[in-house]
């Protein structure tokens, strides 16, 4: 009997030069939309409207109903290349509809603030390679268990205690400025006592010792 791969025996792999698309990006659907008529008019690009098929409001509404984002449980919206305001707004519109999503990947989208977004059932969130500078800019994720924030620009641990009342077990903060803070691991575990793993390393006995509070109150006396 022939193996399933027999039909591909004459095919070969080819490297496409000068192409930035990686294999894992092929699993990420594009959700970007073109500019609206008002946006094109504001930009003085009305000539593009002639090339675009006219779509009625009813057709637009029917298209949005078919998206069915509300019933999505796992979703990868990484590498969207959100280069304009109308693309960001449409992206956030979709995020607001993800009321049942449990696993969500938003890698490398140049995101800066999702604090207005609520993901009530999200248990796993990956927002690596974005532009977050604070934990306050993350979406509301009350059921989060695994959170990955690698390669952002989070400078301090301020706001991390907001996750104290969540079931957060695993947190990744690799390649953020806060990683170089003195007693970094002790501070994280003291704010998140239920956390089991930080940056891929399980909680160690030395991580349980209280942070050196005097470090924050050192004073210089001039006589």
Give the N-terminus to C-terminus distance in angstroms: 92 Å
**What level of helicity do the residues show?**
10-25%
CATH structural architecture: Alpha-Beta Horseshoe
**Uncertain residue segments:** 214-219
Order of strands side by side in the largest beta sheet?
Answer: 1-2-3-4-5-6-7
Q: Find the CATH topology.
A: Leucine-rich repeat, LRR (right-handed beta-alpha superhelix)
The count of strands amounts to 7
What structural class do the secondary elements suggest?
alpha/beta
Largest sheet: 7 strands, mixed
Number of helices: 5
Q: How much is the average pLDDT?
A: 82
The CATH class turns out to be: Alpha Beta
Protein name: TILB protein
Keywords: Leucine-rich repeat, Repeat
Description of the structure:
It is a single chain. With 223 residues, this protein is of the alpha/beta class. It has a single domain (30-62, 79-202), classed as Leucine-rich repeat, LRR (right-handed beta-alpha superhelix), CATH 3.80.10. 19% of the residues lie in helices and 9% in strands. It is built from five helices and seven strands; from the N terminus they run αααβαββββαββ. A seven-stranded mixed β-sheet has the order 1-2-3-4-5-6-7, with no helix packed on it. β6 and β7 (201-202) form a beta hairpin.
